[in-house]
Structure formats: C-alpha cells, structure tokens
Design a protein that fits this description.
6-stranded antiparallel beta barrel, 3 domains, binds FE2/S2 (inorganic) cluster, Elongation Factor Tu (Ef-tu), domain 3, alpha/beta, 306 residues, Rossmann fold
C-alpha cells in the first residue's frame, strides 16, 4: 500500500532512562496495520530538517488506536521529539518495512540498546517458548519489565551492573540457552556475532538492520545493504533496508561496519551507483523533489547521528 504522510497528535510521552523516551501516538490506521518489526518515519517540525527519522514501532494498541515508539536522543531531530508532550502534533509515515516473519518455534528475541523496543511487540505476538535476551550499557534496563510479561528475560550489561557482564552472546553462552529461531535488532557488531553464532549452530536467524534513511519508501536507495542475491529493483547485489527490510534472513545480507559501508559507497558499488538522476525521476513524479534530492545528499552524511 502507498504510504503517505499524516499529521497525528501525541497521546503521551515519558522518559524511560537517560536519553531514552517513550511516546504514544494517536494513529488508529497505522496501529491497525502495524506488524512487529515495522517502523515509522517521524518528521520534525523544524522546516530546516526535511528528512524523517526512522523509528521502530515498539507496541500497538489497536483498541485505542495508538502506537508507541521508544527512541534514543541521537541528535537535534530526536532532541526535538523529546520536548513534545500530550496534544502536540507530528507528521509521520508508516507503517514501513516488512516486519518479522513469525515462526512457531522456540525463539530468542534479542535486542541491543535501542534495538530492544521492537522486541516488545514481537514478544506479544509470538505464541511459543521464548527468551528475550536484552543487551544494555548499564543498569538502565528500560522495557525489560514490560517485555518480561511476555517472555523470559535474560539481561547482559556492558558494565556488569546487571545480568551477565558483556554482550548478549555472552549471556546466551553463560546460561546455556538454546533456541530454534533468532529474531534480533541492534548494532551491527551484535548482529554479526549472532549471524556467526546462528551459522555455527544451524539456527534460523532474522535480523533487523538499522540505517539512516531518507525517503523511507524505497525510492532514493539511500539505505541499501549488500546482499547475496541480485536485487530486482536495482539489478545489483543490494537491497533497500527501508522497503525490502528492515528484517532480513541473516544469511542473505552482508553486514558491514560504518567504515566498510562508507568505503563501498565511495567506491560506487552501493547506493552511489544510482545517483541523482534516478532519484529525481521518482521525486518529480511525487512532486517532492526537494526532499528526495536532499535524501541523496544526506547519504553522504551516513553515520552522523541527528
Ligand atoms: Fe531506503 Fe530511500 S531510505 S530507499
């Protein structure tokens, strides 16, 4: 379904931890459609910032027509969001992306840092034996209690203040946990470690990739990742994280660090192959050229939080 920007009001907002905010939005249509693992694009009200911020859907409340996002302040855009309260309005677009494929198998739901929020909605939907393995920096274990209502929670913290000291993979090994399918969202090093762990142990592994995004609807190729197979849309070994993902089978995608990704882009073998002409055609047809051309320029700024 074609997505369009809609103006919604904020139902409520609260701070969950330092720099981490939870916002409920009055968005009945989106709440009705949203699936675990999808995201929305949230636009700032500052006209000098045209591009939206992609934020995972943490939870939906279909009965009351609301959806929830939990985000970390990472720059001026998200700082602006954190200043809003009940009744304030925001433009959003969504739900976007494909979401998780739900399997009825013993599952690990693994979230690292700001990759934890989508695990709440996923935990609510999965009707199987499941562990939620959550990785934090320290003892600010936001959402752990809420996820604990739907899954057995295991925590890892980098500073060792709570749970296993180290990463989620350390917690899995320390506790001797086993599963038949993994669903994960978080930073690339965590996803790389899980991909290797899943391959070693023959476990099906679905990962949700995080990337700076521009159009959010598959038009600008500002969010591509490298894949095993040739993509029908771009005819190269790329997939658009916003449209084809953000959830992929781990085996199907190559996980690059931010530096490796910049090198690929500079080498012209990822989104750099598309350039402004392709984007402009799409942009003209949507009569939103400014946004899309800015999207291309923004690609050069990937890795810079805002
Ligand atoms: Fe994914 Fe534009 S942000 S194609």
């Amino acid at each position: 379904m074609a997505q369009k920007k809609v103006n919604v009001t904020i139902h409520s907002q609260e701070k969950l931890a330092e720099g981490i905010y939870s916002m409920w939005l009055n968005a009945p249509e989106m709440a009705k459609e949203a699936k675990p693992g999808q995201f929305i694009a949230v636009y700032t009200n500052d006209s000098s910032r045209l591009l939206p911020r992609p934020i995972s859907i943490c939870e939906t409340d279909k009965e009351n027509g609301r959806l929830r996002i939990v985000y970390r302040i990472a720059g001026a855009g998200t700082l602006e969001f954190s200043g809003y309260g009940a009744g304030d309005a925001l433009n959003i677009m969504g739900p976007l992306g494909n979401g998780f494929t739900l399997k009825n198998k013993k599952a690990f739901l693994i979230g690292g840092g700001i990759g934890i929020p989508p695990m709440l909605e996923l935990a609510k939907h999965l009707e199987c034996e499941k562990y939620a393995i959550l990785g934090y920096r320290d003892s600010a274990t936001f959402l752990a209690d809420e996820i604990g209502k739907y899954a057995e929670v295991v925590i890892a913290s980098e500073d060792g203040s709570v749970g296993t000291k180290g990463k989620v993979i350390d917690a899995i090994r320390e506790k001797g946990l086993k599963a038949d399918v993994i669903y994960a969202c978080g930073p690339t090093p965590m996803l790389k470690a899980l991909k290797a762990y899943a391959a070693e142990n023959g476990i099906e592994c679905w990962i949700s990739l995080e990337e700076k995004m521009a159009c959010g609807i598959g038009a600008c190729l500002g969010c591509v990742c490298h894949t095993k197979e040739v993509d029908e849309h771009s005819n190269v070994r790329n997939k658009r994280i916003c449209k084809d993902g953000p959830v992929f089978l781990a085996d199907d995608v190559e996980l690059l660090s931010a530096d490796e990704q910049r090198e690929r882009i500079a080498g012209g073998c990822m989104c750099g192959t598309v350039k402004e002409s392709a984007v402009k055609n799409t942009a003209d047809s949507r009569n939103t050229a400014g946004v899309y051309l800015d999207a291309v320029k923004n690609t050069a700024n990937r890795g810079k939080e805002d």
